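Revision sheet: structure tokens.
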Amino acid sequence: MVGALDPVKNHDPISSWFSLESKVCIITGASRGIGASCARVFFHAGARLVVAARTHGDLEALAREIDPGGSAVTAVPCDVSDFDQVKQLAQVALENHGQIDILINNAGGALPRSFLDTSPRYLEEAFHFNVASAHALNRACVPVMLESGGGAIVNISSVMGRVSGRGYLGYGTAKAALAHYTKLAARDLAPKIRVNAIAVGSVATSALDIVMADDHMKGAMEEATPLKRIGQPDEVAIGALYLASAAGGYITGKVLEIDGGLEAPNLDLGLEDL
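Predicted:
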């Protein structure tokens, strides 16, 4: 299990609390943004990685960047909405590295839509992509984690899972479900496997490219954020490292909010009254 350290008894340096030496970590949605930042941070913390996404070329480029010519990073093309591919992802991690200790469920998302444009099928697809896919990979990895004594799971949720705003019904509902799933799974898997989540605010990833390119929209988002700026992917990755490492060894079933202080959406979609 990714356990706790006792700095008083062992006189451990702070860096050892965050070390992932000898650990194997799967990261989904890893080709860019938060997932790619998690891959870089976790690799530098000592982990061997299995990075997964739908875009094979981007994954290969990331693996070469992080570990040129090495064998510590395995790139696996995977669409997490396909449960057969999810099972294969866990199997590849086990075959290539012999264990699974940490899982970062970062793949997910859903585009904003008005209420009447949010069909039952669209809501179902958002739940499938954000919640059912994470559960499928968790189920594939948990038996392997238990064989080696335990592990840590971090689910990437969103601030929209706890605040309300027009146009976010599908995305917010799915992310709220993922946050509560985290609490329930943590109870089921304790004490050997810790399960936590991160509720992410507005972060400078490709999902915000259109916003970041518009000075007016970017400025409005920053002004509506208590910390007056957009977050960076590395800031979320550092939070994930905390939850996955021994530094967070006494934390399970919690949702860490990395959102710049948001208590309401900072992007007005301009949807009018029905």
